[in-house]
């Protein structure tokens, strides 16, 4: 049934006219076993998204109460058969759900894995602050959140003189007495004697407290609804179902763990109750057993935006269509296009890390052709500075540094990456070159990846972050209730790299990488090696005997891989847009979904279609209207920091700032020292001739207090968190009173000295510094303000006393401004 109605979804303040269907969730139910139950949710749905919950005001009727009955919105099995549940609202709308009841007469004992462990987990018994702690609590040590059922079963049924689970007197079992606080318990009351969880535990003990090795395995979980509108201060419930290998489907809502990606938009309780808190989108994460899933809560901003705004917004490619769809769903109008002067500066800095020359700016602004931005982007993609910029970026990613590599090896690794950028080598081929490297690391620089990461776990974890954009480190020790990867999967993944061998080469600093015929890492809990397998991939058959790295590389670079393309696309997107579709850029967890999933999927597909061509990806992003928007906020999109309604202003990386200071002042930065192993110690180096830019440095150990202050990463760990972008007092002191800028201004070869010799006028100096540093002419008000600098220092005569000081003050004022230090 469809009708137009005015919806205030849970108190939604913005009136929307929507065509809605009444639905029962889930729409098809299978109840297996006596007393099986399923909570029902009655909703109004439009375009696959819930817009209103109607559960409280709906009448529910079972077509056959001998098969299933309904009590307080919960469906309960009575006997085998089929039944139709009908929901009816007060205004006459109806919806139905199909129900099948199986094995209603077959009493099966509770499963330790599938029933008891979830109860203990829900009660917090095996949490890190209770018996799941490393040393346990009160003499009882359970596996953290139940990741080791076999061990937990032994501890509960065999230790402590079998008093924790007493088969002869089940009601006297300590797990019941202490859990329900019928005897003293330091953890407080966790169970209630009159509730279902207590009775399930009791029934399990009465039936023998068995650990059934053939219990059905948990395949997946499903949360309903998958997407919903929710206004601030409103509330809504969730339903979670577990699907098992034997075909059973259970309502596990009460035993799940819940979390929100953004508590400022929506909060969720352990009772599966979601509360609106603000505007935007939030992902609600649901964890049960070793499975995780998510649903999305949307709360549109309370703006009144004419649909024509979105219809008339410029579209250059598929990016714009998907961005505008998201903006329209959130009532966020896009900012207009940026000015040409803003675009050329932005494009140069984002793509190449340098400022455009004034003549380049003037030529671009005066060009009247409609495709001049596309032509500029094409030119930038062929500039040598682009090679410098992206070589430096990939050197950050792969930790190129003499911290762990000798100088020759560091140079070999850097040159291999730089050549790959210069050749525009496809990303899948670059990945294969590194992961399949064999032989001398002097001849094959990519092999130094394995020299940097000698430990098998270190290799596995670094590969996951570098090429899959995700961390698996937690799974090394245990499963996590809100993360996807299990400990078993971790050690299967690690065994893909367990046979990489290293031996010394013939020259100093040279290492030979080779594949050993045998060797496995053991699962720390099971004490046996796990079958080598990619994450979510099929294990490599032991009898195949092929190089495990080749098997992994084939899986990794396959067009069907769900992670590889997205990881790189997200990194490049963040470089240009200021924020990753998934933030942080190397945190592509299932529990940290993209702000625009459809866009991330489309970018990944396009990247694969173009054979992993990074330049094509850059061109596509830069040509989009989304990238070319103004950074100026509109009143209606001022709160948006993740949906790309405007260009996000951000501080330039330290290396780009330092090179820009050199470019504007005309005084290159000397790099004459390198940090030694001694804290604060330096040694002289002649590897970097005069004129070397910061973005041309291959080694993060090159001494530079300026770069250190502005967050240069140490390249010790593959993590975006290594680069610090937050403002600090040290940065302010470095810019306002530090030696770096002052030395450049006072240098004999500086632009200040050249302008003094040239005898530039006040007007010329002001115009030139603005074009050099900000890529735009000064406004009338700025001209007037900066004229005051000269008036207070000296006369307008070029060689008057104090002239140099006035010019230095002019440079200092512009080069310490927010407009210079930020890209906008």
UniProtKB/TrEMBL annotation:
<feature type="domain" description="DUF1549">
    <location>
        <begin position="319"/>
        <end position="500"/>
    </location>
</feature>
<dbReference type="InterPro" id="IPR011444">
    <property type="entry name" value="DUF1549"/>
</dbReference>
<dbReference type="InterPro" id="IPR008964">
    <property type="entry name" value="Invasin/intimin_cell_adhesion"/>
</dbReference>
<keyword id="KW-0732">Signal</keyword>
<feature type="signal peptide">
    <location>
        <begin position="1"/>
        <end position="19"/>
    </location>
</feature>
<feature type="domain" description="DUF1553">
    <location>
        <begin position="548"/>
        <end position="788"/>
    </location>
</feature>
<protein>
    <submittedName>
        <fullName>DUF1553 domain-containing protein</fullName>
    </submittedName>
</protein>
<dbReference type="Pfam" id="PF07587">
    <property type="entry name" value="PSD1"/>
</dbReference>
<dbReference type="Pfam" id="PF07583">
    <property type="entry name" value="PSCyt2"/>
</dbReference>
<dbReference type="InterPro" id="IPR022655">
    <property type="entry name" value="DUF1553"/>
</dbReference>
């Amino acid at each position: 049934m469809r009708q137009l109605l005015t919806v205030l979804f849970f108190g939604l303040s913005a009136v929307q006219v929507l065509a809605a269907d009444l639905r029962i969730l889930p729409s098809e139910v299978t109840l297996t076993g006596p007393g099986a139950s399923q909570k029902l949710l009655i909703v109004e749905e439009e375009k696959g998204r819930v817009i209103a919950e109607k559960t409280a005001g709906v009448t529910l009727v079972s077509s056959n109460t001998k098969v299933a009955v309904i009590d307080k919105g919960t469906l309960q099995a009575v006997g085998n058969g089929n039944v139709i549940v009908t929901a009816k609202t007060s205004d006459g709308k109806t919806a139905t759900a199909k129900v099948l009841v199986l094995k209603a007469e077959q009493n099966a004992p509770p499963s330790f894995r599938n029933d008891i462990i979830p109860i203990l987990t829900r009660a917090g018994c095996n949490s890190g602050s209770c018996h799941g702690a490393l040393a346990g609590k009160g003499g009882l040590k359970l596996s953290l959140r139940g990741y080791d059922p076999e061990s937990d079963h032994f501890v509960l049924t065999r230790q402590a003189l079998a008093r924790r689970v007493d088969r002869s007197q089940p009601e006297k079992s300590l797990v019941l007495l202490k859990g329900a606080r019928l005897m003293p318990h330091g953890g407080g009351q966790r169970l209630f004697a009159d509730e279902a969880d207590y009775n399930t535990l009791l029934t399990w003990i009465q039936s023998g407290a068995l650990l059934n090795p053939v219990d059905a395995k948990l395949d997946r979980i499903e949360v309903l609804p998958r997407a919903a509108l929710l206004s601030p201060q409103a509330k809504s419930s969730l339903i979670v179902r577990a699907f098992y290998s034997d075909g059973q489907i259970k309502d596990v809502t009460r035993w799940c763990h819940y979390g929100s990606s953004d508590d400022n938009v929506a909060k969720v309780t352990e009772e599966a109750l979601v509360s609106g808190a603000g505007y935007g989108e939030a992902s609600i994460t649901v964890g049960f057993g070793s499975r995780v899933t998510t649903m999305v809560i949307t709360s549109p901003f309370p703006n009144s935006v004419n649909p024509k705004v979105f219809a008339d917004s410029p579209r250059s490619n598929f990016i714009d269509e998907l961005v505008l769809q998201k903006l329209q769903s959130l009532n966020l109008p896009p900012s207009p296009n940026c000015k040409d002067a803003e675009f050329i500066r932005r494009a140069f800095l984002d793509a190449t890390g340098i400022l455009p020359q004034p003549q380049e700016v003037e030529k671009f602004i005066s060009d009247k052709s409609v495709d001049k931005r596309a032509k500029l982007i094409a030119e930038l993609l062929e500039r040598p500075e682009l090679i410098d910029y992206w070589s430096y970026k990939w050197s950050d990613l792969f930790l190129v540094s003499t911290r762990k590599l000798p100088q020759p090896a560091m140079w070999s690794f850097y040159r291999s990456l730089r050549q790959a950028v210069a050749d525009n080598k496809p990303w899948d081929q670059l990945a294969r070159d590194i992961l399949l490297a064999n032989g001398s690391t002097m001849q094959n620089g990519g092999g130094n990846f394995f020299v940097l990461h000698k430990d098998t776990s270190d290799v596995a974890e670094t590969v996951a972050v570098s090429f899959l954009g995700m961390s698996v480190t937690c799974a090394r020790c245990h499963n996590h209730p809100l993360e996807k990867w299990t400990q078993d999967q971790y050690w299967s993944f690690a065994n893909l790299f367990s046979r990489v061998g290293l031996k010394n080469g013939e020259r100093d600093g040279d290492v030979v990488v080779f594949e050993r015929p045998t060797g496995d890492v053991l699962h720390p809990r099971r004490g046996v090696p796990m079958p080598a397998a990619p994450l979510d991939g099929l294990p490599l058959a032991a009898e195949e005997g092929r190089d495990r790295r080749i098997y992994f590389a084939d899986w990794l670079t396959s067009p069907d891989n769900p992670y590889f393309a997205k990881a790189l696309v997200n990194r490049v997107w963040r470089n240009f847009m200021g924020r990753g579709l998934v933030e942080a850029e190397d945190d592509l967890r299932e529990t940290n979904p993209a702000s625009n999933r459809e866009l991330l999927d489309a970018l990944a597909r396009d990247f694969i279609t173009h054979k992993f061509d990074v330049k094509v990806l850059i061109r596509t992003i830069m040509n989009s209207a989304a990238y070319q928007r103004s950074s100026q906020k509109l009143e209606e999109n001022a709160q948006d920091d993740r949906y790309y309604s405007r260009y996000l202003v951000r501080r330039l990386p330290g290396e780009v700032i330092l090179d820009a200071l050199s470019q504007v002042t005309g005084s290159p930065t000397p790099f004459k020292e390198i940090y030694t192993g001694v804290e604060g110690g330096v040694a002289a180096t002649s590897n970097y001739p005069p004129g070397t830019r910061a973005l041309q440095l291959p080694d993060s150990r090159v001494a530079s207090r300026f770069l250190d202050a502005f967050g240069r990463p140490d390249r010790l760990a593959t993590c975006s968190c290594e680069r610090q972008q937050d403002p600090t007092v040290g940065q302010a002191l470095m810019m306002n009173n530090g030696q770096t800028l002052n030395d450049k201004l006072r240098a004999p070869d500086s632009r200040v000295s050249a302008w003094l010799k040239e005898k530039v006028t006040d007007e010329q100096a002001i115009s030139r510094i603005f074009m050099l540093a900000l890529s735009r002419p000064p406004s009338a008000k700025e001209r007037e303000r900066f004229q005051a600098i000269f008036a207070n220092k000296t006369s307008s005569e070029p060689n008057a006393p104090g002239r140099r000081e006035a010019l230095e003050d002019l440079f200092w004022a512009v080069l310490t401004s927010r407009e210079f230090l930020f890209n906008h």
